[in-house]
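Troubleshooting: if your tokenizer reports a length mismatch, compare your output against this known-good record of 645 residues.
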Amino acid sequence: MKLPLPPREHSNRVYPPGAPTLHGLASVITGVVVVCGLYFAQAVLIPITLSVLLSFLLAPLVNTLRRLHVGQLPSIFVAVLFALCVLLGVGALIGAQVVQLAADLPQYQVAIEQKIETVQEKTVGRADVLLSKAAATLQRVAPSRPYMPRPTGRAAKNAPPVPAPVEVHEPSPTPLQLAQRAFSPVIAPLETTFIVLVVTIFILLQREDLRDRLISLFGSRDLHRTTTAINDAAVRLSRYFVAQLGLNLSVGAVIAVGLALLGVPGALLFGVVAALLRFVPYIGIWIAAVLAVSLAAAIQPQWTMAVWTLVLFVVVDLVAGQVVEPLLYGHRSGLSPLAVIVAAIFWSWLWGPVGLVLSTPLTLCVVTLGRYADRLNFLTILLGDQPALTPAQNFYQRLLADDPHEAIVQADRLLGEMSLVDYYDHVALEGLRLARNDALRGVLTSEQLARINEALADIVENLETVEGAPDTSAPAEPPGVPGAEPVAGHVTRLDGEVSREAGESEPTPDAFVLCISGRGAFDALAAAIVVQLLARRGIACAPTTYERFRNGHASTPDVGSPSIICVVTLDAAESPPYLRNLLRRITGRKTPATIITGFGRSLENTTDAGLVHSTRNATTFRGLIEECRLAAAAKPHHEDARGVA
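Known-good structure output:
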């Protein structure tokens, strides 16, 4: 069926962007100041950030102790003492393993040298041969340097004397200097650890007071929204950090046991390193894998241990990333993969290795905050994993880009989750409304309108035989007394839609629906969708256009005697004069017919009471189809009108 093009042409209007405002300039300046503050105040902010994250980790333990009727202060000190013991234990374990591994490295020297020689022979050795040949060729081609004889006799006497070498010897260090050199690398981490623990204690002690101050600072006018945001952020982040810590520790334990079974020395060290580096997104686990595989390749003349070590890391990472993480976090962690990479680069530039480890938690905090703060919502859009466009917006955008194939692919994907009529209601109908608004604004040229109509026709035709997910829409209770039993043939409305109930009769075979499309640019496509859905329900129907029903039009056909006339237009919400005139002409016909309009309850604003009482209205494709089906089921046998073009 060739769908008619819109009768009116629209000039293409491109509206200039708005001029930069003072608010936008202030936002840019604020962002620059914040980034500079983060960079130059890292010595102060890093301990505070670590304290906040540690408080999120210890909050569940503190809450558990409080539920066991332990006092607030003892609960906090027990939790902080537990964290301190864990940190000291991990540090002592890493130090002991490093010392032991350094003592055992001379035993692997022969194997390491053999592996290096083998690699050099296979790679660098061949390159050295080529370079030697090239150097010899250049020496033969290049001119020789002139010979300069050494001065003798009087010239040698007049030559300047050669300076004698000077050696500077430092005095032997004192015992105090030796102690300072030995403990200076440890002083900074111990100082940071002490500050973090102290700040964590005060954060846990004054959680309620800090919460109230944040509410007063950011949202005292909207207590409900601010309280919801703070509670959601605290619960979400706490659960995420605890789950991630538990998963990383489990991964480290599995890797340590696996390496010990393979015979790799320093298995505990590599397990701890893998657990810590797994906080670094994507690449952290593979840094630990490279270190472990390198050591496994060095301690054995063969490559068997190195291969099995690599297999161990691959299997553990796949199981943890593809099986365990979706069960713990859900299929979405809240951040897009690109955002994780960009955040790792940004925080590494700001705070170095500490920023690299904290990049994912910090970015997740910012994204969670942006869900409730309007001025930070752009961060949620840029960094979050939620779709940037709704399905309807994506549908219309693909039509604007003249890419109907991608729209069809999107339809096939969505039809695995929803029925066909739901897809038409929530995606196609909303996309048509967006297109109609642009057409009314005059930003679509006639060529664009033609391409969009052709693409829509291709999509509708492609969905002719597509089966969507089963329709699970349930009927609502009949209006009136709650809990009343459904009545046969009764229509219930849920969100503006009409649902079918048990006991309703099927349409009669002689029922016929005539679908009349309005004058809008995309009304013909909407009517084609209605015809397709009616045909799926087994209701005889045929499409026609508004132009063929105008008074005095030379090509007005003999429409026969349809039992149901369905007027499909996206202009119904505005109740334009042409639609009222069309309905008045249809109502005045000699042969009575049930009149159904979609989409919108436009007739409630009209002064013609006869039109209001004789016309049914629907706001969605589902409601329109159900109205047609109910009208067809209620009609007696009518004269067949299938000869209508």
